[in-house]
Design goal:
Helix content: 25-40%
Structural class: alpha/beta
Strand order of the largest sheet: 1-2-4-3-5-9-6-7
CATH superfamily of the largest domain: Zn peptidases
Number of helices: 17
Shape: globular
CATH topology of the largest domain: Aminopeptidase
CATH class of the largest domain: Alpha Beta
Number of domains: 3
Length: 579
């Protein structure tokens, strides 16, 4: 009888273990969970464990909701202590790179079922987006990643509207991105991780990482990242015997000739989160390792990040909070950056020797990494970037209420706004904008303006009741400036949201304007003087009658003031009748 009871107990525990295997585990590490399987998995976990919840946030472009899974002991105890740090993990932004989807499912279960992992939730709240690019995840096939080993079926990089969501974090075209902004602003995490699989070179490490560029953070937080958190993260991976390297962002040639830190622009997930002084990471599992190796390495990276956040939660939270306070008090804001080639460090790199061999099809020389020739050596690494554009921060930005796309995007990212309570004539600094090389082909649904130049003018503008005021003394200032300053690399001007101002709406008929032009010159001696000088200095202008009339027209009261005038005003001080 006793043996029968033991057998029944064993069978029950075996079935229970089998029941909690993920689709990845059931396939012996060859398949990744589908979107539906992932959501159903977390719903079952949330039903069985009080420490886990799952809730929808808005919807994706595919029509399905974006979900957020929360894992926290506070959900069970009700202890909402402010000393817990938050980690947000985003999976499946590129669903052909699904390592994080499966790693997070296993980790969520293990945190509940393995007693030795339970203490890791003492000081940490985890937020997991199970599958972010749902449209891409539903578009599965065997062959979306030609250069990648496994899984047997993979999602697609583009979302339901064929956008790359990892280029959308500033322009926020996708419903997915708006849901992400809501999730991010609800959690306000100290740490962020976006999970990927890399392309590019071959090397020994199963995983690489991109960290927030320290140069873009408040100095004290940058010091904490570089001297405390990142070294501890790498040490933790070393203790788990998992090789890891900075992301292989190489110059022309093999990695051993030199690598640079990846410039995570605000369009990217970690670039967006850095604007809010969140320490962001991107994990890049190596495409040429087996899917099982990639998932294991991603699991280890997340676990080490969790261990370090839990261990150092007080310092981590303190440094992020301090940085956010300081960010709101800036008087200068760097906008654009360039690699500093004058300073470099060195990193240990575990690679394979590269050579060129004739291609099997074309016969042309092609890069070949010889896995029979591994090496481990220090290589040049360039981690520093220098600001190339820095501006003086105004007291406020004024946005006419007609620009609803702009106002909405500010509010989606938690920016505090006010509205004018009455019509007000204000003297503001305005930009007159030029696009020096208009794009000829679209990029991510826009004709991105690569080169933008401006000059500033002081003008009196009548702002209307209901126009929006954005005071800059708030901790989201870096995001505000990167969005609203036209020359910022991912500003909303560069992404076409203001292109209407670039087209002139009124013109003149030369045969009618000629007489009026003569009168204008007669009544404006300074204009006449500059006009005559221009004819003397520029022979082509002197031979072009239309150009001459255009010059006079553009310097007359008849020329529309709004042409090329950026509508967002920079206000430097005074009293505003705002609510």
């Amino acid at each position: 009888m006793r043996n029968a009871c033991l057998l029944a107990t064993f069978l029950l525990s075996f079935c229970y273990a089998q029941d909690w295997q993920t689709p990845y585990e059931r396939s012996a590490g060859t398949e990744s969970a589908t979107y539906q399987e992932a959501i159903q998995w977390y719903e079952r976990l949330a039903a069985d464990y009080e420490e886990i919840s799952i809730q929808p946030y808005g919807r994706s472009d595919a029509g399905e909701p974006i979900h957020l899974v929360r894992i926290s002991k506070a959900l069970r105890s009700g202890d909402e202590t402010t000393q817990r740090v938050s980690i947000l993990i985003n999976n499946g932004i590129h669903p052909g790179e699904p390592c994080g989807i499966d790693a997070c499912m296993m980790l969520a279960r293990d945190l509940m079922q393995k007693p030795e992992l339970s203490p890791l939730l003492d000081h940490v709240v985890i937020g997991i987006i199970p599958v972010y690019n749902i449209g891409g995840a539903l578009n599965r096939s065997c062959c979306t990643r030609a250069n990648q080993i496994g899984p047997l079926s993979q999602g697609f990089r583009g979302n339901a509207t064929n956008r790359d969501l990892n280029r959308d974090f500033m322009k926020m075209d996708a419903h997915n991105t708006r849901a992400f902004a809501e999730i991010f602003q609800d959690l306000l995490p100290e740490l962020f991780l976006d999970t990927h699989t890399t392309n590019g070179a071959d090397y020994q490490a199963p995983i690489t990482y991109i960290a927030t560029l320290a140069d873009k953070l408040e100095p004290s937080l940058a010091t904490y990242l570089e001297s405390a958190f990142l070294p501890a993260l790498l040490s933790g991976m070393d203790k788990k015997k998992v090789l890891i390297s900075p992301y292989v962002n190489k110059f022309d040639g093999p990695p051993e000739e030199g690598m640079a830190a990846f410039p995570d622009l605000p369009r990217y997930a970690s670039g967006y989160t850095a604007l809010f002084q969140t320490l962001g990471f991107i994990s890049e599992a190596h495409m040429l390792k087996t899917f099982e190796e990639r998932v294991d390495a991603t699991y280890a990276f997340i676990l080490v990040m969790l261990e370090e956040a839990n261990r150092d939660h007080l310092a981590l939270k303190q440094e992020v909070n301090k940085a956010r306070t300081l960010a709101g008090n800036r008087t200068e804001q760097a906008l654009n950056w360039a690699l500093d080639t004058t300073r470099h460090d060195s990193v240990m790199f575990h690679g394979f020797r590269a050579e060129y061999r004739p291609g099997a099809v074309t016969g042309a020389p092609r890069l070949f990494y010889d896995q029979t020739k591994p090496f481990s050596e220090f290589i040049p690494y360039f981690p520093h970037y220098l600001p190339t554009t820095t501006l003086h921060v105004p007291k406020a930005y004024l946005i006419p209420q007609a620009w609803t796309q702009i106002i909405d995007r500010l509010q989606w990212s938690g920016v505090e706004t006010q509205v004018l309570s009455k019509d007000t004539l204000l003297e503001v600094e305005v930009y007159v904008v030029e696009i020096d090389d208009p794009a000829k082909t679209p990029y991510e649904g826009h004709y991105y303006h690569q080169t933008v130049s401006t000059h500033q003018e002081m003008q009196q503008i009548l702002y209307r009741k209901g126009d929006v005021v954005v005071m800059t003394q708030q901790w989201r200032l870096p995001f505000i400036a990167h969005a609203l300053e036209p020359e910022a690399v991912d500003s909303w001007f560069r992404w076409n949201f203001f292109d209407g101002i670039m087209m002139q709406k009124e013109y003149f008929s030369p045969y009618l304007f000629e007489n009026l032009a003569a009168k204008i010159l007669e009544e404006d001696p300074e204009l006449k003087k500059s006009f005559e000088a221009k004819k003397k200095e520029e022979p082509d202008f002197a031979q072009n009658s239309y150009a001459q009339l255009s010059y006079i027209y553009q310097h007359s009261p008849y020329y529309e003031k709004t042409h090329k005038r950026y509508p967002v005003g920079r206000w430097q001080g005074g009293k505003l009748p705002a609510n």
